[in-house]
Amino acid sequence: MGGIEAEQIGINAMSDSEISEFLRKNAISLSVFEVKKVVELIGRNPTLTELYIFNTQWSEHSSYKSSRAVLKALLPTQAPNVILGPVEDSGIVELGYIGNERYGIVVSHESHNHPSQVVPYEGAATGVGGIIRDVLCMGAKVIAVADPLRFGNPNGKNKNKVKYIANEVINGIAAYGDAVGIPNICGDIYFNDSFDENCLVNVVCLGIVREKDIIHSYAPKNAEGYDIIIIGKATDNSGFGGAAFASLILDEKNRESNRGAVQVPDPFLKNVIIRASYAVFEDARNKGVQLGFKDMGAGGIMCSTSELCSEADFGADIDLGRVNVSMQSLPPYIIACSETQERFTWICPPEFTKTLLKIYNEDFELPQISLGAGAFVIGKVTKQQDYILRHNGKIVCNVPIKVVTQGIKYERQKKEPKRSFKEPNLKEPKDYNKVLLSVLRHPNVASKAKAYKHYDTSVMGNAVIESGYADAGVVKAVDGSAFGIALKTDCNPGYCRIDPYWGAVNAVAESMRNVAAVGAIPSALTDCLNYGNPEKPEAFYDFYEGVRGIADAAKNLFLKGTKYPVPVISGNVSFYNESASGNSVDPSPVIACIGILKDYSKAITMKLKKENSALFLIGDRKDELGGSVYYDMNNEIGAVVPIIDFEKERNMIYAVIDAINAGLLLSCHDISDGGLATTVSEMILGGDADGNIGAEIDLGFTDLRADKALFSETSGFIFEVEEKSTEKLKTLFRFYKINLTELGKTTGNKLTITRKNKKIIDLPISELKEAWTKGFAEALE
Amino acid sequence: MKNPNIAVIYFPGNNCEEESLRAVLASGMDGRIVRWNERKGIEKYDGFVIPGGWAYEDRIRAGVIAAKDPVFKVIKAEAENGKPVLGICNGAQALVECGMIPGLKDKVEMALAPNINPFISGYYCTWVCVKSNEDRDRCAFTKFTEKDEVIPIPIAHGEGRFVTKDAELIQKLAKNRQIIFQYSAKDGKIEESFPTNPNGAIYNIAAICSKKGNVMAIMPHPERASFIRQLPDIELKNNSIGDARAMESPAPAMNVFVSMKKYIVN
Questions:
Q1: Could you tell me how far CA A373 lies from the centroid of its own chain?
Q2: Annotation says A61 is catalytic
């Protein structure tokens, strides 16, 4: 054990209640048990800086202390197409070969729930900022973001707050993404009252990298004596304790003090840093220089520098006095742990340091762009595996580096909560026109254009299918090749409330259906697991069941053409999503599916293309309306959620992909929220709600009561096929043993649905449009 | 003559420089992205593109600080020598703020005010149509665009509403034939109402050129509508589904860049 020169806190001499009192006074969230564990691990009393370090490193957010064992035991993270599993800042899945070079898609998926509830605009904006850093630091070019959002009930008792938060979150995402210039290509938005006091703001980011150009989040080989360089915004006290804050239950009373834990976004500075970093990538590549690069997120300089060195079995010796700060007299623990935005750490061989500093400080003039910003050498990588921080000539932290980074683990108890859901006994509606219009107007179904048209969806010029036009967004991967990348996020909170396992299975299956519906092969998954307090056995049970559901779905919906799972390559766990009154959000394992098109030009949208083409349905309709929009409109939740038959689901997905890639489908849309009637209506309208081809549907294929047939959310697809393609199509679906149901045809300028020779729905397109385009706007107003 | 060489200027905060360069290259010109602080020698370029984004964070007002950047002195001088200058979105805002557009007096005559529409307040990204308002030879950027031709093109801005305090300016611009593109319906009809006019711009103005026609400020993004692939869910694109080569072929807005080349070469 090395020397320590700063004052040590006399933990050993304190009683438990004195330790508690000390922790409370210093806003440290560690438990008394954990503080004693620190003393044991380092073999002496800690300094205040060291305590804050463990406070961050052992927070749920940073250590995954409750979730790690479950994730490790259950989730499939390996498959032949995985270049990098969930071990660094982002996962990487193979895109394919271009020439002789293997390319990877870099993916990261995070939450920024608590900050967004407290300061929604900044919270959502810094969520985008953070995820971009995670992808960029792999040496990747950042090409797309997506935002799954969950808000409270816009018509409930907290409606004003809910609307305020929803609007501010959308504004924050827009402001950040628009300014850095990364297109927002998809997302999903749900409203329900479980999110009244705890919104969910998740964010997904994609990047592209040549496999040989990947920069890792650890020091390169033989890095002893390499420079530790931080770049970006001058460090201040913002976001101090952010990771610990993310691991607490939100209490409205602490709103003001919690604000300080939220970071301040600066997308303008980020815009310049991204471009400067691309210049560093290129220069290092040309010179064959090996570097380590890591985002500064939770835990700031401390977390970033310690992990970079520890992962490569080195230590670090850092002088906090060399950190560029924008506030004077910051104590060492704030400089070390503040979560000031727009910063990264490089591990750089000394002979390249001058070049790297020049790129940031002179070529891109960071010091002129933002006061105090720039690139600064703050320390050295050491052979001795200790983590040493110096401040004002004193050593304020000196701990074995593995002790800093190893984290802590808990075995949490799980207990199945009592659930008493039952199916309602609804009378058959008399006016189906009215019901369909209400479903289309439901904020969970209605067009989200008012959100995504506030985002920049076409910047970078890489768009193939922008937000809203299809089930997934599609971008072209690389100039000079035809590869396309599809992305979609999913998770229906209602299903998960009723059944956390099948809710998670459905989230995975739907995300795969969504990328398949544009013709892309589901190639990897990410999960952002948003749950309540893991110390409560009921909440932990829901979490466990969710992970089990994801794992089962991923393992059973094989990577197309193999028996391997669709791998989970990145993710995040967000616990403590509950209000002070103890209400947890609906279990929300939000899934993102990354799909790959070998030829993006095959991708299709959901809008009907031609008159008199046939409409086919796959996926039999079942009485599985638990958690459906239809039940919700009737103030019911139900009990029977859609159950996924893995073999059938797999074959449906494969058949749709093959059909699209063979050019047999004109348009395609998966069946989900709002059921079959909604799917057809959305195909008529198209993403811009400017469609002018109607449809005639006959429900003769099913014995279900009409409301169940029309609004059941059992998985399936509807697609449009020209007559000349129907024979080939039938052969293809026979091969996959999937029942093709002829549903009707495209015609006229209205939607008619017939049951036993009686028209039960007869609506002009204009009325469908009115309902579908108004519902979401109304929820925000 | 050697191939035209275009400087796509990156001011800190711009974010459309890469796709602008891609369109420049695809139109058959050479070019590179030039940082704001690399201005030494930029007078050697044959033309300039000021791309979209948020130059200098749009501090004070969109485009104001960029317009005061020393780079603009050079660009202004080169424009007076007849070199083409294309300002897209934030670049258009800068051209207006430095007085190059409409350029009738040596001062700022117009502004790009916050959008007004009933749908989204602030930043709005959507596909619209613009109609070419003048004959092909009127300006450096429409040599392949027929008068009255309608072009699909996206907008992505919060402050794109052309306005002026000078009541007679619009008549002067019309008389000088400086109004190059107007927001229109798909069939070319000029309607002042939303959604045809997405931001409330006076006279549906989407693009204005200088009196000589070698400088153009355009709020929509031609570089995001230069390849069939980039188009939204419309027939022009849907006819190319399954044909990767057709998807990478030029969409109508590419003519802005092809025309720039022709203007320089001629």
A1: 29
A2: yes
Q: Which residue has the tokens 């660094």?
A: A88
**Phi first, then psi: what are they for B103, rounded to 5°?**
75, 25
Q: Which fold has domain B5-265?
A: Rossmann fold (3.40.50)
pLDDT at A728 over 50: yes
Nearest Cα residue in chain A from B22: A461
First-last CA distance in chain A: 60
Residue A230 is part of which domain span?
1-407+450-600
What's the CATH code of the domain at A687? 3.90.650.10
A189: helix, strand or coil? strand
Say how far residue A487 (Cα) sits from the centre of its chain: 11
A506 plus A608 within the same structural domain? no
**Per-residue model confidence as pLDDT tens digits over A56-90:** 999 888 888 999 999 999 999 999 999 999 988 89
Q: Cβ–Cβ contacts within 10 Å for residue A598, how many? A: 16
> Quick check: helix, strand or coil at residue A632?
helix
Catalytic residue among B16, B89, B98, B139: B89
Judging contacts by C-beta atoms under 8 Å, the chain A residues touching residue B52 are 459
Q: Catalytic: B57?
A: no
d(CA B266, CA B259): 10
Residues A589 and A496 in one domain: yes
Distance CA A510, CA A538 (A): 26
d(CA A399, CA A268): 37
Cβ–Cβ under 8 Å, residues B6 and B24: yes
Contact A663 B233 (CB under 8 A): no
- Res. B216: pLDDT tops 60: yes
> pLDDT tens digits for B18-50?
999 999 999 999 999 999 999 899 999 999 999
Burial class (CB in 10 A: 0-12, 13-18, 19+), B10: buried
Average pLDDT of the residues of chain A: 94
Q: Is A454 close to B54, i.e. CB distance below 8 A? A: no
Give dist(CA A164, CA A154) in Å, integer.
Answer: 10
- The complex's ipTM works out to 0.97
pLDDT for the residue numbered A252: 56
Whether A502 has its CB under 8 Å from any CB of chain B: the answer is no
Dihedral of the alpha carbons of B192, B194, B200, B203, in degrees to the nearest 10: -20
DSSP string, B190-231: ---STTTSSS--GGGEEEEE-TTSSEEEESS-GGGSSBGGGS
What's the pLDDT score for residue A704?
Answer: 96
Mean pLDDT across the stretch B189-205?
Answer: 97
Q: How many domains, chain A?
A: 2
Specify which residues A184 forms β-bridges with.
A145
Per-residue pLDDT, B119:
94
pLDDT tens readout for residues A141-152: 999 999 999 999
Indicate the SS3 state at residue B246.
helix
> What is the pLDDT confidence band of residue A1, given thresholds at 50, 70 and 90?
very low
User: What pLDDT does A67 receive?
Assistant: 93
- Name the 3-class secondary structure at A442: coil
A226 and A353, same structural domain? yes
The verdict on a CB contact (< 8 Å) between B233 and A607 is yes
Indicate if A580 and A669 belong to the same structural domain: no
d(CA A383, CA A317): 10
Q: What is the mean pLDDT of residues A614-641?
A: 97
Q: Among A577, A600, A623, which residue terminates a domain?
A: A600
Yes or no: say if A527 and A594 are a contact pair by the CB < 8 Å rule: no
- In this structure, how many other beta carbons lie within 10 angstroms of the beta carbon of residue A221? 8
The answer to whether A315 touches A383, Cβ cutoff 8 Å, is yes
Taking the CA of residue A594 as centre, how many other CA atoms within 13 Å lie in the half-sphere pointing to its CB? Answer: 34
Q: Report the Cα–Cα distance between both ends of chain B, in Å, rounded.
A: 9
pLDDT at B2: 85
pLDDT of residue A243: 63
Report the C-alpha gap between B15 and A274 in whole angstroms.
Answer: 11
